[in-house]
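REQUEST FORM: STRUCTURE PREDICTION
Request ID: SP-0412
Submitted by: Lab K.M.
Chain count: 1
Length (residues): 119
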Amino acid sequence: MSDVIMVNTEYIPGKRIVKVFGTIWGITVRSRGLGGNLVAGLRSLAGGEIKEYTKMLSDARNTAMERLQSAAEQIGANAVINVRFDSSDIGQVMTEIVAYGTAVLVEDVTDNIQRVGLS
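STATUS: Completed
RESULT:
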């Protein structure tokens, strides 16, 4: 399991950004294949969720996130902020999933600042 922190916010509570590496991404392209497209096409006639595509896209999203974490580790980042996803179709049988964000190096905040919480 990776120690890279991944968040969709601009900061991480309790951490301070000490270095910004820049934008990084993890990409995967998936194809359902002829048999899967045929089954999904038949299911789409009846309406409702097409579970074959849902699983494929969920797996692709997880792969893109794993590749994003790996890209962060390779450049020495220990966190990725502003994580986002994008997808696009390539032709009629392939889908590209991209996970991207800003790779940063963070450290714990050790200031003697008293934090006031909301109650």
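NOTES: The longest helix spans residues 51-75.
Reviewed by: T.R.
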